[in-house]
Design goal:
Its EC number is 2.7.11.32, 2.7.4.27. Keywords: Kinase, Nucleotide-binding, Serine/threonine-protein kinase, Transferase. GO terms for molecular function: ADP binding; ATP binding; phosphotransferase activity, phosphate group as acceptor; protein serine/threonine kinase activity. Pfam families: Kinase-PPPase (PF03618). It contains 9 helices and 8 strands. It has helices at 21-32, 50-63, 74-87, 96-106, 122-136, 161-170, 205-219, 230-246, 260-274; strands spanning 11-16, 40-44, 66-70, 91-93, 151-156, 175-180, 198-202, 252-254. The chain has a 4-stranded parallel sheet with strand order 2-1-3-4, sandwiched between helices. It has a 4-stranded parallel sheet with strand order 6-5-7-8. Helix 1 links the parallel strand 1 and strand 2 (40-44). The radius of gyration is 22 Å and the shape is globular.
C-alpha cells in the first residue's frame, strides 16, 4: 500500500517495463527548469503485467499523479492508454510520439527493440488511433470528423455506450457514442453520416432503474431528480424506441443481462456484415 503524500506537492509516477532510467532522467530534467521545485516522484520499474499497471493507475488517480511512461511493450501501452483515459489519469508517453515520427520518416516500422514482447505493426498503430478517436467522441462529443467513425452507438443514459465504445476501440474500431436526452432530438450531425454505421441500444426498464440507482449511490447524492424513477424510465425508453423506429437502418440491440463481450460480438457482426472491408484492415 502506497503512503499518502502532501496534495500540494505534484506527484509523478514513472512507469517502465525496463529499468526506468529514461523516464527518471526526463522528469529530473523538467524539474531543473522549475528551480528544482518540490516534486514527489515514485518509480515503478519492470512492469510486465496488466495487473501491475492497474494498481499503479488506481494509486495515480487517488494521488492525482501524472504518469510518465516509457513502456515499449505494445500490449501494455495500449492497456495503459485506454485504462488511464477511463480513470481520468494523465499520462505522458515518452517513447511513442518519437517512435511514430521516426517510423514515418524511415518508412518502416520499429523492430528489434529490447524488451519488446510483440513487434509493432500496423494493427498496433491502428488500435492506438482508434482508442484516441473513441475517447474524443465519448458521450456525445461531436466533432467535424464524426464521419470517420466505424461505429456510432446511440441510446439513453446508462445503456453501456461508453464501456462498449472503449472495448470496441481497444479492438481497433473508431467508435462514437451519442446519448439520447428525453425531449431532445438526436444531433443533426448524425444525418450527414452513413446510417449503416449507427446502432441503437435498448435495455429493460427495471434493470436500467437498478443501474441508475446504483450510480446515484456511488456518486453519494440524491439530488438527481427523476433520473432513476421507474415511470420516467419507461417513458424515456418508449420515447427512444420511437426515434429508433423512424430510422429504419438503425438496428436495435437489447443489452439487458448480457456481458460486455457478448454485446460487443453482436455489434461487430452487424458492422462487419455491412462493412466487410473493416475485417481486412
Amino acid at each position: 500500500m502506497l503512503k499518502q503524500t502532501d496534495t500540494s506537492v505534484p506527484n509523478i509516477f514513472t512507469v517502465s517495463d525496463g529499468t526506468g532510467e529514461t523516464a527518471i532522467s526526463i522528469v529530473r530534467a523538467v524539474r531543473v527548469q522549475f528551480d528544482h521545485a518540490d516534486i514527489h516522484i515514485e518509480r515503478f520499474n519492470k512492469i510486465r503485467r496488466r495487473e501491475m499497471l492497474e494498481e499503479i493507475l488506481l494509486n495515480a488517480r487517488n494521488k492525482k499523479a501524472t504518469v510518465v511512461a516509457t513502456l515499449v511493450d505494445p500490449e501494455l501501452r495500449i492497456f495503459l492508454i485506454s485504462r488511464s483515459m477511463q480513470l481520468g489519469v494523465k499520462v505522458v508517453d515518452v517513447l511513442f510520439p518519437l517512435m511514430e515520427t521516426v517510423s514515418e520518416q524511415l518508412g518502416r516500422r520499429p523492430s528489434a527493440i529490447p524488451g519488446l514482447l510483440r513487434q509493432l505493426d500496423e494493427g498496433y498503430f491502428k488500435r492506438i488511433s482508434a482508442i484516441e478517436y473513441t475517447v474524443r467522441h465519448d458521450d456525445g462529443i461531436i466533432s467535424s470528423d464524426l464521419a470517420e467513425a466505424d461505429i456510432v452507438l446511440i441510446g439513453v443514459s446508462r445503456t453501456s455506450k461508453t464501456p462498449l465504445s472503449m472495448y470496441l476501440g481497444h479492438k481497433g474500431y473508431k467508435v462514437a457514442n451519442i446519448p439520447l436526452v428525453p425531449g431532445i432530438e438526436p444531433p443533426k450531425e448524425l444525418e450527414n453520416i452513413d446510417q449503416n454505421k449507427i446502432i441503437a441500444l435498448i435495455i429493460d426498464p427495471t434493470r436500467l432503474a437498478e443501474i441508475r440507482a446504483a450510480r446515484i449511490e456511488a456518486l453519494g447524492t440524491d439530488d438527481i431528480g427523476d433520473y432513476a424513477d421507474i415511470e420516467k424510465i419507461f417513458e424515456e425508453l418508449e420515447w427512444s424506441r420511437k426515434i429508433f423506429k423512424r430510422n429504419k437502418r438503425w438496428p436495435v440491440l437489447d443489452v439487458t443481462g448480457k456481458a460486455l463481450e457478448e454485446n460487443s460480438v453482436e455489434i461487430e457482426k452487424i458492422i462487419l456484415s455491412r462493412f466487410p472491408e473493416l475485417m481486412d484492415e
